[in-house]
Amino acid sequence: MLKAIYFRLTSLNLGLWLMTGVMVTLALGSFSSASSEQGGLNDMPLLFWLQRAPLGYSWWLWLCVACIAVLFVNALICSIDALRRKGRSVAPHLMHAGFLLIVLAHLLSAYGGLKQQMQLPQGDSFSFPDGERAVVESITGQVGPMGMMSGYRAELRLSDGLHAVQPNQPFFHKGYGIYVKDVALSPVPVALFEVHKEPGALTAFIGALLFTVGNLMLLAQRKGR
Amino acid sequence: MKWLLITSALLYVASIRRPIFVAALGCSLAYLASRGMGLGRLPLIGPQDTLAFFSGALGLMGLPFIYSRQTAGVRWFCWGCGALAGLFAALALPFPTINMPLPPILDTYWFELHVALAFFAYALFGIAALLGVAFLQGGGKPALDLQYRAALVGYSFFSLSMVAGGIWGYYAWGTYWLWTAKELWTSILWIFYSLYLHLRLKGQAWERGFAWLGIVGFLVTLFTYLGVSMLMRSSHSF
C-alpha cells in the first residue's frame, strides 16, 4: 500500500493536476474581494489572515495552499526518485529545489512576517519590537517640475548613529526593514514609515538563485537539440 | 517621433518578406530609442509605452525564428509575427504618451529589468502560439520543437523577471510578494508554462495538446498583461 502511495506521489499526472488546481484556485481568488487592495490580505502574515478570515472569503486560498502542499511533496519525491537513478541531468532538479525553497520561504513569511505602518513628524520617535528607539532626525523632499515628489528621504538616529531611508533604499536593523513610503513637507515635515519583517526573504533569494542556475543549465542542454 | 511607430505598424502588417519585417523592427526600435533618450529611461510606463515596447519585443524575439530553417516551410509565419507586432504597435497609437519622470519608487534598475524581461517573455509566448498554429496546420515536428524552444526561453525570461520583481518589491515595498490580482495572474502564467514544459514528458501522444497549450498560453499572457490592468484593481495597473 505504501508503495502505491509512493508511486502516486511521484506521478507526473498528479503534478499536472495539482498545477491545474493551483491555477484554478488562484484565478478564482483573483476575482475575490480578498485579493483586492482593501482585502486585508497584505496587511498581516498569511497564516494570521487565514485564521481570522471567514471561510466564505478565504476558501480559495485554503484550496490553493492544499494543492501547493501536495505539489511540494510531489516535486520533492519526484526529484529524489530521479536523482537516485544514474545519468540524469540535475538541471530540472535544481529548478525543483529552487521552487521548494521558495514555497518554504512563503511559509516562513506567512508565519513570522510583520508589517507596521506609522505616520511620524520630524523629531518624533518609535520603538522596534526589540525595544530600541529610533528618532526621526530629518525629513526632506524634492518637488519635481510637475508638482509631484521626485525624491524624498528621512534620517533616523539609533544608538549606533544616523541612518538614511529613502525609496528603494530601506534601512535594515536586526531583521527589520524600515521603509519610507511617503512624505509631506508642509505644514510640518511628516513621513509615512513601514516596518517590515520578512523571515522568508533570504530563503526565497537562495531558491531563486538555485532555480535560475538550473534554468540556465537546462537552456544550455537544450541548445542545439 | 510618433511617425516611426506608425511606420513600424504599417511595415509589420505588410511584412510578407523578411526584409520588410527587419525594416519594421528597425523603425520600432528607433521609436523606442527616441522615447528612451527623451525620457532618460526605458519607456515602460503607461499603455502607449508598454504596448509599443511589447510590439518591439515581438519583433526582436521573432527575428531568429523567421530566419530559422525550421520555419522556411511555413509561408505565413513571417507575416504572422509581423501582424502580431503590428497589432500591438497600432493599439499603442491612440493612447497619449506619458512624459513624467519616474515616481521615486519605480526609479530603480530592478523595476526596469522586471518589466523589460516580462515583455521579452510575453513576446516569446506569442511566437510560441504562432508556432503552435503552424504545427496544427501541418507544419510538422520542427514547428513543435521550435514552439518548445520559444516557450522555454520565454519561461526563463519570465522566471528572471519574477526574481527581479521580487528583489525590487523587497527593497521598495518591504515584501517580495503581494496578494494582488496582478501577482496572482503572474503566478498563474508561470505555473501554466511550468505545466506546459512538464507536459512534453508525456511524449508524442500529447503533441496536439502541447501545441494547443502553447496557443492558450498566449491568451493567458494577454489576460495577465492587458486584462488584469483593464478589469481589475492592482498596484500593477498602468
From TrEMBL, chain A:
<keyword id="KW-0812">Transmembrane</keyword>
<protein>
    <submittedName>
        <fullName>Cytochrome c biogenesis protein ResB</fullName>
    </submittedName>
</protein>
<feature type="transmembrane region" description="Helical">
    <location>
        <begin position="201"/>
        <end position="220"/>
    </location>
</feature>
<feature type="transmembrane region" description="Helical">
    <location>
        <begin position="94"/>
        <end position="114"/>
    </location>
</feature>
<feature type="transmembrane region" description="Helical">
    <location>
        <begin position="60"/>
        <end position="82"/>
    </location>
</feature>
<keyword id="KW-0472">Membrane</keyword>
<keyword id="KW-1133">Transmembrane helix</keyword>
UniProtKB/TrEMBL annotation, chain B:
<feature type="transmembrane region" description="Helical">
    <location>
        <begin position="209"/>
        <end position="232"/>
    </location>
</feature>
<protein>
    <submittedName>
        <fullName>Cytochrome c biogenesis protein CcsA</fullName>
    </submittedName>
</protein>
<feature type="transmembrane region" description="Helical">
    <location>
        <begin position="176"/>
        <end position="197"/>
    </location>
</feature>
<dbReference type="InterPro" id="IPR002541">
    <property type="entry name" value="Cyt_c_assembly"/>
</dbReference>
<keyword id="KW-0201">Cytochrome c-type biogenesis</keyword>
<keyword id="KW-0812">Transmembrane</keyword>
<dbReference type="InterPro" id="IPR045062">
    <property type="entry name" value="Cyt_c_biogenesis_CcsA/CcmC"/>
</dbReference>
<feature type="transmembrane region" description="Helical">
    <location>
        <begin position="148"/>
        <end position="170"/>
    </location>
</feature>
<dbReference type="Pfam" id="PF01578">
    <property type="entry name" value="Cytochrom_C_asm"/>
</dbReference>
<feature type="transmembrane region" description="Helical">
    <location>
        <begin position="115"/>
        <end position="136"/>
    </location>
</feature>
<keyword id="KW-0472">Membrane</keyword>
<keyword id="KW-1133">Transmembrane helix</keyword>
<feature type="transmembrane region" description="Helical">
    <location>
        <begin position="50"/>
        <end position="67"/>
    </location>
</feature>
<feature type="transmembrane region" description="Helical">
    <location>
        <begin position="74"/>
        <end position="95"/>
    </location>
</feature>
<feature type="domain" description="Cytochrome c assembly protein">
    <location>
        <begin position="62"/>
        <end position="232"/>
    </location>
</feature>
